[in-house]
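TICKET: design request
STATUS: open
ATTACHED STRUCTURE:
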């Protein structure tokens, strides 16, 4: 089993290192903020920014773009603050804008549990259906989910629905590629291997750094 997991990680992973990433200068035009707000991304990620121009970042973004266009499943993994959520925001901005949907794993499962209340305005089935059908789905902080059997089934069901419908999905976690593969399990990993990839960010955190007197959390 360990050999299979190692092979899966090797097949899925591509790295962005510290040497490959430029520190971006930030631009913040307001005209797209309202449009992008409906995706669920926090205000920090909604304004457009000047993207890195280094070969490593551009190659990574191009590969991610191809997977989004063909309805693939991407796993963006690596250390905190390395730019995973920002890359996901840029992918949504380029391809779906207001039709993309962003949630954290914690928000997703809290919302599902809230749907069990008698006074809930939405059902578990409705939530799962909406997330299965939206044009592009981003699930951030995947490492924060509880890992219960129920959560695993729900996540696998959503991913399987989207895989079958060829709708792009982005999973983000502050984990190594090996940790992410172990947490997702063989079913989701097989779908990532078949239609997507795992991109590992190993550059230093951008948090607390500034360029052109603008701070940006990535």
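STATUS: resolved
RESOLUTION: sequence designed for all positions
ATTACHED SEQUENCE:
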């Amino acid at each position: 089993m360990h050999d299979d997991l190692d092979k899966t990680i090797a097949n899925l992973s591509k790295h962005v290192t510290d040497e490959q990433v430029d520190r971006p200068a930030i631009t913040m035009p307001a005209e797209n903020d309202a449009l992008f707000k409906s995706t669920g991304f926090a205000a920090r990620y909604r304004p457009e920014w000047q993207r890195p121009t280094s070969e490593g970042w551009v190659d990574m973004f191009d590969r991610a773009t191809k997977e989004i266009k063909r309805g693939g499943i991407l796993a963006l993994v690596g250390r905190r603050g390395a730019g995973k959520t920002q890359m996901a925001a840029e992918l949504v901005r380029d391809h779906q804008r207001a039709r993309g949907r962003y949630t954290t794993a914690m928000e997703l499962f809290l919302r599902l549990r809230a749907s069990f209340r008698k006074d809930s305005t939405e059902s578990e089935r409705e939530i799962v259906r909406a997330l299965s059908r939206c044009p592009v789905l981003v699930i951030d902080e995947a490492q924060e989910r509880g890992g219960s059997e129920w959560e695993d089934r729900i996540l696998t069901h959503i991913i399987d629905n989207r895989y079958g419908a060829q709708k792009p999905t982005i999973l983000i976690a502050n984990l190594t590629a090996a940790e992410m593969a172990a947490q997702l399990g063989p079913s989701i990993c097989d779908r990532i291997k078949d239609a997507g990839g795992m991109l590992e960010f190993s550059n230093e955190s951008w948090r607390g750094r500034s360029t052109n007197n603008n701070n940006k959390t990535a």
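CLOSING REMARK: Helices lie at 2-12, 33-37, 55-69, 84-95, 105-114, 124-133, 149-165, 177-194. The domain at 2-215 is CATH 3.40.50.300 (Rossmann fold).
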